[in-house]
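Provenance and format

Records in this collection were gathered into a single text stream. Each protein contributes a sequence line and a token line. The two records reproduced below are adjacent in the stream.
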Amino acid sequence: MASQPNRSDRTSEHHSRQTRIAEMRRADKARDRRNKAIAITVSTVIVAGLVGFGAWVMIDQREAQQREEQAAETARKTPVDGEQTWDAKTLGRNHVETPVKYEMTPPVGGDHSPRWMNCNGDVYKNPLPEVNAVHSLEHGAVWVTYGEKAAKGDVDKLAETVGKTPYTLMSPVKEQAGAIMLSAWGKQLTVEKADDPRVAQFFTKYVQGPQTPEPGAACTNGLAEK
């Protein structure tokens, strides 16, 4: 008959088992603490990286904005090469209901209709009444016109630019001398191609520019193409 373990043996075995369990629990806790420490360290590194990247992006965006503002300011201060200028004092500003004969085509100012053409990036497919377009110039708009010499690609590119630029309008003018002409109140520029850098300069300088007789006046709620 097999002998039964005595109480001392059972006590020793129980103590050994409890010791192993305690060691396993300590090991589990140590592993958990180590994993948490690693997770915290990794998270800290990621957050720091993201913060650093975000700060870099913000600084880069701010610097880019400053460069754009400086370039725009330089463009506004620099005369546009080849532009024609008329003395604003000689350009009538009366509202009339009768036809007006302008000394230049397209006109850059003078007496005009009480109603303006919509000029909130409006691209017109047909010629406009000059007396209404001139009123848009009085409000600070830049009027882009093109003749038969203008290439379709250039017309399309200009239409895209005008379409996203408030205080601009565009239309064909068959009688004009140049392929592409840009007009503001008292200012006019002739170019051959849409990618001529003077186009962007003219927009920057004269869209709601200092030549505007009525800055801030509406370019909506006027006449639209029928």
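Adjacent record:
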Amino acid sequence: MPSTLASPAALPADWRDFLALTKPRVMTLVVFTGLCGMLAAPVPIHPILGFTAILCIALGAGAAGALNQWYEADLDAKMRRTAGRPLPAGRMDRQSALHFGVGLAGFSLGLMYFAINLAATVILAASILFYVFIYTIWLKRRTPQNIVIGGAAGAFPPLIGWAAATGDVALLPVLLFALIFLWTPPHFWALALFVKTDYANAGVPMLPVVAGERVTRTQIGIYTLPMIAAAMAPWPLGLAGALYGWSAVLLNAVFLALALQVATRTSAQDDTMVPEKRLFKYSILYLFLIFGALVADRWFA
């Protein structure tokens, strides 16, 4: 267990600090992929129930983010990009963050169970538990494979959205799960390449820190290939139409070009990390666009 941060002169937390605990930028992607999973399902869901399910996904993601920051307050204090978060900045005590995270998790699961269905509740619970216990507590401080295995935590939302609408799971949401799971390593390793000093200072064994840039770049290229396969699979399998298929071709071609630029580059060329930053930013846009294309294909094609 990380040591408790002493903040005798801590300022009282306000609503913005509690909102920051939920990692709202990460939550946006989680909510969007969950919504797309719901809209891609063959069974329509009542708008009020759909809103409730998405609210539960958002609250569950927020709970996981809060518990992550509760546990990693000591690491966040050592990294420049996270030092301003409520706990390391001394605006909140760890017990408040713990209670907030547990309360959000309990409320989201209870609401999902009573308002939606058991299947969606079980998958939501699995996503929260996986992120907190498997990724945050077990993997992150122990292995450079933390992102590879831990990527499953962020891949659950399409399954949850689909299950909320249908009450079960099918091949398409499993492929969407695989897409996010395989997208996570190149996405986060691109980030890790230009913030590796932060991770090194905090003692987090991210791949660039323990294996070096060359290995990380190669792995980005390698993981991009099965990610593309997972993204393309719905089209030839008859689970999506041409609108999605051609959109996926274009989006994957750009992703591959950027990933290869990073994979074949040496750090000696320059230290600006422009290609890495470009891949990281595009990877976020890519996920929004490819999931949006799936929904457009289902509803408008």
